[in-house]
Write a structure and sequence with these properties.
The chain is α/β, with parallel strands linked by helices and 331 residues long. The protein has 14 helices and 8 strands.
Length: 331
């Protein structure tokens, strides 16, 4: 009786075992393909700037223009090329010495696993990178997640933020579905398996819908569709960086929300009234109330990527901020 039962069990198990082996083999093949795709992406998009070593971490940055120093910090999922694609970089280099950095794990900058890359940790890395270039003070502009790093840099006593420009940022903890759905690849082990196998093709699949959402209510600009380096964004390494940043959003905002009143430099807060990624009323408008003397500008019928629709106005506003600093320091 036992031998008959064992044979029946073996016959039933065989298809399952074969399916499991086939599944593992398929995932392994997918991992190889994704690794090759990541290498090809880096060959197609080589570094356009320079690297600086900060305690063993390679930070990639581009420098352009002359004048007062202005530091640019990009959002989640992007890299320094986003400022060039939007036209904001060209606009700003007419007046400023612009330093745009790839935040840790994005573009060509490294993101060692041993560090928890909170906004404060990223700000410390950027502060030290700027220090090695010889910059100890600057105007700072951040977009989206980069605003959290910009605010942390303004609160860092080791760096003098002369003025702060914050575009479509997230500052206060709120319930967010994207944290639940997009943080998986940040989990050690299971997340690693995801980002090397299923996450890259899934990211490619949802990219058009995500692009539409971040630009709504305006259409996705043609230059973004043609120039955004999607193949760089879906590399396993950058997927981990993006997932970790997503996972850190709520706790990071909760940790710093009571310190915004300590920001003493002139601060310009800009947002789009139609932003579907971060709610203007609960984020930028609330931050305006929290930072004494800050200025708020709301662009009507504009979504999260306001630097594409309003590069000229943002550039002019940064110039106005710098002019105000010059007048104040001349007195």
């Amino acid at each position: 009786m036992r031998s008959i039962t064992a044979r029946r069990f073996a016959r039933r198990l065989s298809p399952l075992g074969a399916a499991a082996i086939a599944g593992v083999a398929g995932l392994a093949s997918l991992a190889v393909l994704n690794a090759r795709a990541a290498r090809r992406a880096e060959q197609r998009h080589p570094p356009e700037g320079r690297f600086i070593d900060v305690d063993g971490v390679a930070v990639h940055y581009i420098e352009a223009g002359e004048g007062p120093t202005l530091v640019l910090l990009h959002g989640n999922g992007a890299d320094v090329s986003d400022f060039a694609t939007s036209g904001l970089l060209e606009r700003l280099t007419r007046r400023f010495r612009v330093i745009a950095l790839d935040r840790p794990g994005f573009g060509h900058s490294e993101r060692p696993r041993a560090t928890l890359w909170t906004p404060t940790a990223q700000a410390a890395l950027i502060r030290d990178a700027l220090g090695r270039i010889g910059i100890t003070e600057a105007l700072v502009l951040g977009h989206s997640w980069g605003c959290m790093v910009a605010a942390a840099l303004a609160l860092d006593p080791g760096f003098r933020t002369r003025g702060l420009v914050l575009l479509a940022g997230y500052y206060f903890p709120t319930a967010r579905a994207d944290v639940v759905f997009l943080s998986g690849p940040a989990i050690p082990g299971v997340g690693d398996a995801m980002r090397y196998t299923l996450s890259p093709p899934l990211a490619r699949l949802i990219a058009p819908k995500l692009f539409k959402r971040i630009f709504e209510p305006r259409p996705v600009p043609r230059r973004f569709r043609h120039r955004f380096p999607l193949d760089m964004a879906v590399r396993p390494s950058q997927i981990r960086a993006s997932a970790e940043d997503t996972a850190f959003m709520i706790p990071a905002a909760a940790a710093v929300q009571h310190r915004y009143r300590e920001i003493a430099c002139p601060t310009l807060i800009m947002t789009g009234s139609g932003d579907r990624i971060v709610e203007p009323e609960r984020q930028s408008m609330r931050l305006h109330d929290a930072i004494p003397g800050s200025t708020l500008e709301v662009f009507p019928r504009t979504g999260h990527m306001l630097h594409y629709a309003h590069a000229a106005r943002i550039g002019a506003a940064v110039e106005e901020l710098a002019d105000g600093l010059s007048v104040g320091e001349g007195r």
